[in-house]
Structures are given as structure tokens and as C-alpha cells.
Amino acid sequence: MTTPAELQAQADALGWYHTIDLGNGVVTKGISVQETSAAVLPDVQGRSVLDIGAWDGKFSFLAEQRGADRVVALDHYAWGVDFVARGAYWEECIRNGTLPDQSRDETDFWRPDLPGRRGFEFAARALGSKVEPVVGDFQKVDLAELGRFDVVLYLGVLYHMKEPLTCLERLRAVTNEVAVIETEAVHLQGMDGDALLQFHAGSDLRTDFGNWYVPTIAALHNLCRAAGFARIETIVGPPPPPPPATPPAASAGLVHEMARRVRGTPAPEPVRSAPSQNYRAVVHAFAGS
Ligand SMILES: C[S@@+](CC[C@H](N)C(=O)[O-])C[C@H]1O[C@@H](n2cnc3c(N)ncnc32)[C@H](O)[C@@H]1O
Prior knowledge:
The chain is an alpha/beta fold. It has helices at 4-12, 58-65, 77-80, 83-96, 118-127, 143-146, 164-173, 217-226, 250-263, and strands at 21-23, 26-27, 48-52, 70-75, 132-135, 149-155, 175-188, 197-199, 213-215, 231-236, 276-286. Bound molecules: S-adenosylmethionine (SAM).
């Protein structure tokens, strides 16, 4: 019989992305700093759930604990890539100012023994879970074989995709009721209604060469609509607008007017910038209206 202290020590010997409560005070020490709030998940009671990009399985286990009928945890990249070896290569690229050859992830840095799945397996054992792991790249897996699910979780995956629309079309194809899409998003003040995609071709976003398209909330809605979802609901949207600027002091108005008179032309207006702020957006994309 393993004591909680022994289980904690065993958990601590593994690397974790997710912080998972394994019961009896045993908690994994996850490194994820932008963990999705469990509050954004829809009701999964009695539903089938697919968790794409499950990694250590936190949201798969949560769905199971909330009464889902069947849960499939699909992942590929984080389970098979040797992050230490790949990290050294990326650092070399940053030093040389070059872009990495990302195809090496599936050759030179790929470990068929799936070292990145040990956390999932450990947590599944500790929780007595029946979540079914599936190793697969969602961009390529046979969708007919994978099947359709009532609720599909697509958390923290979209901005890692080189072909976001194609991936969302595939997401729609496996969704019976609702897909939960959580993604890095960009808020451009006053322009959230514009459907814009910010493109990253380097490691400027969180030192990760695997980040590509970052949408505004309007672009995220449009992508989902184009992919065939019938209705999209924003669960976490852009940050609220900043408080209105304080009116210029009377003396500032006077300086402006004096400058106008002296030069005979309007004094330059203060430059209005459109501050860009990244945040994590969440939408529910419904298959039917
Ligand atoms: C930022 S992590 C998010 C993990 C988890 N879904 C969450 O929200 O905490 C991205 C995950 O997506 C997985 N992933 C990336 N590309 C994938 C693909 N093409 N097919 C399946 N999983 C993928 C990664 O392996 C990793 O586990």
C-alpha cells in the first residue's frame, strides 16, 4: 500500500505540465502558467468527450469526474518530443538568428517510448481513471476511426497550428454538440471587431517557435463559422476597455492654441497608439443552432 507521501514523491520525480489533484493531499507540480479555468467547460454529464492535446490529462480527468460517459485523451507532440534535446537545438537557433527545422520534431527529437505521457499514465493510475489515451496528430488522424464526440476540448492548441482553418474544419467534423476552443488571442484596442490574425514566424511569443496564428476575437468567431460551426458564444473575451483618458489640463489646451497661432497650422495631436495585448480567449462553438 503506497502512502500519500510516497505517491507525492513518485509524482515529484516526473515532469508535469498540469497541476492535478490526485487525492489525499497529493498534487502534481505543473509548470503550466496559463491553465484554463475549469469553469469554462460545459455540462459533460452523460456525454462523450474528446480532449485534443490532453498532455497530462487534467481536463480529461475532470470531464470523467464530472460524469462524462466516455473520455478520449488524444495527444502526440508533448507525449513524444524530447523537449530537452529539442530545447538545446532551439537555443542554438536563437543564438544564430535562424528558424528551426520543425520537421526534426518527428525525426531527431521523437521518442517512440513517449516519455511525455508518463504523467498522464501516472495520474490515470492514481485516480483509477478509465480515460482512453490515443496517440495521434489531430491534423492527420483518420477522423472516421476516431469517431464523433458530444463535447470536444481544444484547449491551448489552435495557435500551435500552421493551418488553423483546416484544423477547425476537422474539429467540426468530430463534434456532435459543442467544441470548447481556448486559444492565445490578441486584443487590439478599438479593433476587436476586425477579424485579424497576428502571425508569428519566430520565437517572439513565449520563446516558442511552435506558435503561429493569434486571432482577434472576431477572427476566432469567423474561423469557427467558416469551419462549419452554426453558433459561436464568447466565454472569455478581450479585456475591458481602459478608463476614459483624463481631459487635457487647461494649460495643455493653451499651449496647443499658442502653437497653432505661432505656426499658423494645427499643433500635432498626441499620437494615438493601438495597444496590443495578448490574452486567452475561450469560445463555445456549437454544431447546431
Ligand atoms: C499548450 S498545451 C495545452 C495542453 C492542455 N490542452 C491544456 O489546455 O492545458 C498544447 C497541447 O497540444 C498538443 N498538440 C499540439 N499539436 C497537436 C496536434 N497536432 N495533435 C494533437 N495534439 C497536439 C501538445 O502536444 C500539447 O499537449
